[in-house]
């Protein structure tokens, strides 16, 4: 789960990492009040879980109350790269002398934690890495978790923090690691970690986290009260919401064929087969969703799954692909028939079974003698048929 | 020589008394696996009986309090873990410290920090973990007196012994390819798991198959997320003496969306199926457009084996 900037800041503050003063606000009235409290000039920043919001006009400087209100009125209704803005952060504007980038993340290859840092921060680190690969340092924290202030000092030196900043940088690195560990994060990124202050007054200079991005491990929600405090009020997709409530893995896509299967790999493969069939047939037919019923699904789970997919007006045909391992194709067949008893649909459903109780499952389906049900022998045949039926149905509409 | 574990090796099950543990222990026994014990501190000293599960006879499986005790009593070489996510780290650490050489973790939903810790600890102890979030390992034998093992949830009876080795990030795609290539048979099939960090990578599995004289060719099944397929391919290009065919799932997966598996996510433009396919093909590994085409590529290789 990705956090909004204002939530990420909260976690940094809890660990004592310096951040500018800031207040989260959801309407222009609250923005005005917040801006008065923060003082001017200040920065009005869109709260949205996607990068490049600055270029999209989601970050503005406000010199006075009037500007703060105008800025917030332009930002609050925005949708940036498909993500609805959930509010704005009104933050103290700081005099930036230099920008660093520091992140800690899970390293899938070395199976430990990756500290990525550069003394040339500010922009996206991928860009920096492209233009100045030598400037980006990559260091590791052991998966057994040994990392102390001495390690942090050594690391801060290697990263290239300017001499005067090394001690403070080490403290911040160590605190970032605490944030990472305590919250079961998969990413803690501070960009920029800025050196702020009066250029002529050495004693006024210090490091401050001006922006942060944090992702949390969904699998660790059980030891953090289900991440209740970070619940997102914005429901991005009603179908994804419905599926999540039933504990199903579902992703909404843009095409016409609803896809249901068992096992993440097989369902992904089924999506690809539908897209491939759409290309082969020259119709451009694509999958409408990813839905994994998981291992050992009951008839009830299958019924719920099919109901969710059939309710989606985007879906024109459905492809059910099950290779029964733990899952019994009989359960799946019964679930399909139960759903069709309750829902009167004109949408054709193409089914491919293999493995555990496949023959019996197919017999159950065929004996129902329902004209919506089509049976295919292989996964490839089924995808072709589902795509063809979708194109025909679409033509009739 | 045998892959990953001796034929007929003694095996214990952690979480044997839970629903998953009960169901799959019965299955593993029926598949001929030499299950010698279970671990559950609250039920230590009891016995789980599986009627007719061992060659038609009842299997009486003793339950021990700890892995250490189970290993000392039974000489277990492997453990299969069905313990729920919140207790999984404790269970795996216990197995590692008891010196059990192979730990197959089926559990889905373990926090990545817990897995990373367990894998690092296992490396320190010279122990292999397979998984988590995986279907497990099947090894095949042609000697009925010395059968292979079925550790996890891979259905029994799809395939027999043959020259192919299979490694996969996905469970059902593993069964799919096993089914498609059943006519040739396998030395071993293993699912490495769909989590961001796993105990045995695709690369490490290929290394094992490369060292095994009976394995003549490999199938590798990957999916979006991370770069394990590319790392395996680049290693194979330099070291592998046997042909590989591959399949990659998730070409239609959108950026930033987790596709079922915790590790199956394209982020920041990295981990796409297209990237993986291109890297594999660059080093001469054929990548099937569908599982069916992948099987066809393997049939061509089999036809040309001497």
From TrEMBL, chain A:
Metal-binding found in the keyword field: yes
EC number: 6.2.1.5
Domain of life: Bacteria
Gene Ontology terms: biological process: succinyl-CoA metabolic process; tricarboxylic acid cycle
Organism listed in the record: Bifidobacterium vespertilionis
Cofactor: Mg(2+)
Pathway participation: Carbohydrate metabolism; tricarboxylic acid cycle; succinate from succinyl-CoA (ligase route): step 1/1
Family named by the database record: Belongs to the succinate/malate CoA ligase beta subunit family.
Name assigned to this protein: Succinate--CoA ligase [ADP-forming] subunit beta
GO molecular function, a single term: succinate-CoA ligase (ADP-forming) activity
RNA-binding found in the keyword field: no
Positions contributing to substrate binding: 262, 325-327
Binding annotation for Mg(2+): 191, 211
UniProt cross-references to HAMAP family, sorted A to Z: Succ_CoA_beta
Oligomeric form and interacting partners: Heterotetramer of two alpha and two beta subunits.
Enzyme class label: ligase
UniProt KW keywords: ATP-binding, Ligase, Magnesium, Metal-binding, Nucleotide-binding, Tricarboxylic acid cycle
Cofactor: binding details: Binds 1 Mg(2+) ion per subunit.
GO cellular component, as recorded: cytosol; succinate-CoA ligase complex
Pfam families tied to this protein: ATP-grasp_2, Ligase_CoA
Reaction(s) catalysed (UniProt annotation): succinate + ATP + CoA = succinyl-CoA + ADP + phosphate; GTP + succinate + CoA = succinyl-CoA + GDP + phosphate
Protein residues bound to ATP: 45, 94, 99
Domain (ATP-grasp) ranges: 9-216
Function according to Swiss-Prot or TrEMBL: Succinyl-CoA synthetase functions in the citric acid cycle (TCA), coupling the hydrolysis of succinyl-CoA to the synthesis of either ATP or GTP and thus represents the only step of substrate-level phosphorylation in the TCA. The beta subunit provides nucleotide specificity of the enzyme and binds the substrate succinate, while the binding sites for coenzyme A and phosphate are found in the alpha subunit.
From TrEMBL, chain B:
Database matches in InterPro entries: Cit_synth/succinyl-CoA_lig_AS, Citrt_syn/SCS-alpha_CS, CoA-bd, CoA_lig_alpha, NAD(P)-bd_dom_sf, SUCC_ACL_C, Succinyl-CoA_synth-like
One MF term in the entry's GO annotations: succinate-CoA ligase (GDP-forming) activity
Enzyme Commission number(s) of this protein: 6.2.1.5
Any single biological process term in GO: tricarboxylic acid cycle
Domain CoA-binding: 4-110
Active site, UniProt feature: 261
Keyword Ligase: yes
Residues at which substrate binds: 175
Keywords: Ligase, Nucleotide-binding, Tricarboxylic acid cycle
Entry-linked NCBIfam families: PRK05678.1, sucCoAalpha
Protein family (similarity comment): Belongs to the succinate/malate CoA ligase alpha subunit family.
HAMAP family: Succ_CoA_alpha
Subunit field text: Heterotetramer of two alpha and two beta subunits.
Protein name: Succinate--CoA ligase [ADP-forming] subunit alpha
